[in-house]
């Protein structure tokens, strides 16, 4: 079993502290690597099948980027999943389960190897996934078979698999053009989280970040409907478009990316969010977001959508929130994991560094908080990948847990 991390009460004490974290706090936590890769290999049935795929241009180990991960636990069995969006040619599958084979960690495409004669049937381009409390894996599929040349080959869609029921597909939903643009360079579905209150998750609502829209897409599981919400807070902040990480400088233009749900309070909760190209945090009540008419009303938006007065010290990607309203998020330029008590103002004094790790935290691109408060982190040195400076002799991709 995955060992547990900080209990929420310990995080709460740290984040309530008014004093900067000490060096001892850094030493009290350590990073446990579940998996690490220099380059990524897939579970081809034979070495000849692998070589044939390379010759056809379907597989190039140096061009595969791991973006996100999640864990499903059923009884005593754990399954670990990762996403590999086809940012460059040579990525044979976009969603896989991690297997151990002859001493190395290889990827087995999920739910099966892509059918090249019907590519749109399975996941095509997946950046992030979300596995909920019911064992449903929510897969948001941008739909382009090759991001590198921005060709649109499949419609954007949402797929949901029941991992507790032999991976049965329970939702296949193609987004209408009114919700997601069919023009590829005007959309990029980068993140998804869900909430539900019923034991069987039949009341689930998914929140999806369209970073290029930029927009928030809401999907209602019960009615199988979706709608698009636009707001100025979803846009990138151009003054923060330059990111330097470990000596590599890249330019980003992505808007809405980070999503986290606050705890239930007075029968409502907040959705916290931020753009990748930003240093602010924002939030809105979910009762507004779940109401199609209210969520698109400019007058309602002016009061319901709130932007923080304070800032982070640099850009961040994903974020999660504990049951005690403690948000965890990375700082990309400084390779730090930070916490913030959302009952406090979002100002620098209320943001505390939990850990800095210049080797393992180079560009944290995925984070999941498990039911037992275990934190799962995915890091991938993405700026190096974008700049063509990935070193195949170094470990570039990691799936991590943090322990006390």
In short:
The chain is mainly beta.
Describe the structure.
The protein has 404 residues and is mainly beta. The chain folds into 2 domains: 1-37 and 254-271 and 291-404, no CATH class; 39-230, TolB, C-terminal domain (Neuraminidase, 6 Propeller), CATH 2.120.10.30. 11% of the residues lie in helices and 38% in strands. The chain is built from 7 helices and 29 strands. It has helices at 8-16, 23-27, 47-55, 286-289, 292-295, 298-304, 382-386; strands at residues 30-37, 41-42, 68-74, 77-83, 95-101, 104-109, 126-131, 136-141, 144-146, 151-152, 157-162, 168-174, 189-195, 205-210, 215-220, 225-229, 242-245, 248-251, 256-261, 270-275, 282-285, 306-307, 320-321, 326-331, 336-341, 351-356, 364-369, 375-379, 397-403. A 5-stranded mixed β-sheet has the order 2-6-5-4-3, with no helix packed on it. It has a 4-stranded antiparallel β-sheet with strand order 1-29-28-27, with no helix packed on it. Strand 15 and strand 16 (225-229) form a beta hairpin. The longest helix has 9 residues, at 8-16. The protein is globular, with a radius of gyration of 20 Å. The two termini are 16 Å apart. Mean pLDDT is 90; it is low at 1-9 and 18-27.
Largest sheet: 5 strands, mixed
Number of strands: 29
What is the CA-based Rg, rounded?
A: 20 Å
Superfamily (CATH H level) name of the largest domain: TolB, C-terminal domain
Number of contiguous helices: 7
Instruction: Give average pLDDT, whole number.
Output: 90
Count of domains: 2
Strand content: 35-45%
Report how far apart the termini are: 16 Å
Q: Helix fraction?
A: 10-25%
CATH architecture of the largest domain: 6 Propeller
Uncertain segments: 1-9, 18-27
What sort of overall outline do the alpha carbons produce when their principal axes are compared? globular
CATH class group of the largest domain:
Mainly Beta
Fill in the CATH topology of the largest domain. Neuraminidase
Q: Strand order, main sheet: write it out.
A: 2-6-5-4-3
The helix-and-strand class reads mainly beta
